[in-house]
Design goal:
The complex is a heterodimer. Chain A is built from three helices and five strands; from the N terminus they run βαααββββ. Chain A is of the alpha+beta class. Chain A has a single domain, classed as Thiol Ester Dehydrase, Chain A (Roll), CATH 3.10.129.10. Chain A has a five-stranded antiparallel sheet, with helices on one face. Chain A starts with 20 loop residues before the first strand and ends with a strand. The mean pLDDT of chain A is about 95. In chain B, a hairpin with a 4-residue loop joins strand 3 (about 100-115) and strand 4 (about 120-130). Chain B is α+β, with helices and mostly antiparallel strands. Helices cover about 20% and strands about 35% of the residues of chain B. The longest helix of chain B has 11 residues, at about 20-30. The chains are: A alpha+beta, B alpha+beta.
Chain lengths: ~140, ~150
């Protein structure tokens, strides 16, 4: 994906929706890659025996993997250097095989410290329509 | 299991992490990120960055460089199989690029329980500064600890 070209502050309206990102099903391979790539070596995400020992039916995705998807959505809309904040609650577990859709919409426009800021609601939703992450982002536009 | 609220205010030993291109490359492969600003220095500079840029949430991956990694679990005396990530928030002040030497300082700012002690929440805040002492980002994370005793009741 090429680097995003930011929309203009004046052109953005509350309620505008970002183009959603539909991801390939979460695979064990992806969790192994994220284990290495993030340095989060918690075995609960890659070792089925360990996950079962702690009461889970299977391994499950790192919350931060899904948060990275929120980041991808935001930086597909504006260049990363214009992102001022990204935050989320992890509201339900993302399992192997889940198909995650990442969506976002504009919830507010304001000015702070001389910057024109746009607030977004961003979320990850699984194939059953359940939100797995409910987050917010703030970006600066010209 | 009960967590010790006296640990509120605990400050971890600061550590430094050098931002490396190879780590960003693997991170991007794992998350499906293909923008060249995360892999190609010329593309990153053409887009207005100082160098190959760390993705927004890569900042959390810098914690893997903490020589006392796992310090929170040792402090709380909690097994890694019992924790879940509850929340994560970042405020960004400047992009982090390859070659930056980032100093990370973390502290525990709150500990509380819900559902009669079945779940415990540990709130941590983190500041990240570059080699010149300039603030790059602030982080706030919530770790959820599942109380193994609650299931036995």
């Amino acid at each position: 994906m090429a680097t995003a070209t930011a929309p203009k502050f004046a052109d953005v309206k509350v309620g505008d929706e970002l183009k959603p990102l539909v991801l390939p099903p979460i695979s064990r391979h992806q969790l192994a890659l994220y284990c290495g790539g993030s340095g989060d070596h918690n075995p609960i995400h890659v070792d089925l025996d360990f996950a079962r020992k702690f009461g889970f039916k299977d391994v499950f995705a790192h919350g931060m993997l899904s948060m990275a998807f929120l980041g991808r959505l935001v930086t597909s809309w504006v260049p990363q250097k214009q992102v001022r904040g990204l935050g989320t609650r992890f509201t339900s577990i993302t399992w192997v095989g889940d198909v995650i859709t990442v969506s976002g919409k504009v919830t507010g426009k304001r000015e702070k410290d001389g910057e024109k800021l746009v607030d977004l609601e961003v979320k990850c939703t699984n194939q059953n329509g359940q939100d797995t992450l409910q987050g917010t982002a703030t970006v600066a536009l010209n | 299991m009960e967590l010790d609220k006296k640990l509120i205010g605990h400050e971890f030993e600061p550590f430094t992490a050098t931002v490396e291109a190879g780590k960003i490359k693997l991170f991007c492969k794992a998350i499906g990120e293909e923008d060249p600003i995360y892999s190609d220095e010329a593309a990153a500079k053409a887009a207005g960055y100082r160098g190959i840029t760390a993705p927004l949430t890569f900042l959390r991956a810098l914690q893997a460089d903490d020589p006392n990694k796992g310090g929170l679990l040792r402090l709380l005396n909690v097994d890694i199989g019992l924790i879940l990530h509850g929340e994560q928030h970042f405020e960004y002040y400047a992009p982090v690029v390859v070659g930056d030497v980032v100093t990370c300082q973390e502290k525990v700012v709150d500990i509380y329980d819900k559902k009669g002690g079945a779940l415990w929440f540990v709130v941590q805040e983190m500041e990240m500064k570059d080699q010149a002492g300039k603030l790059l980002a602030k982080g706030r994370g919530v770790t959820v600890v599942r109380n193994p005793d609650a299931a036995k009741k």
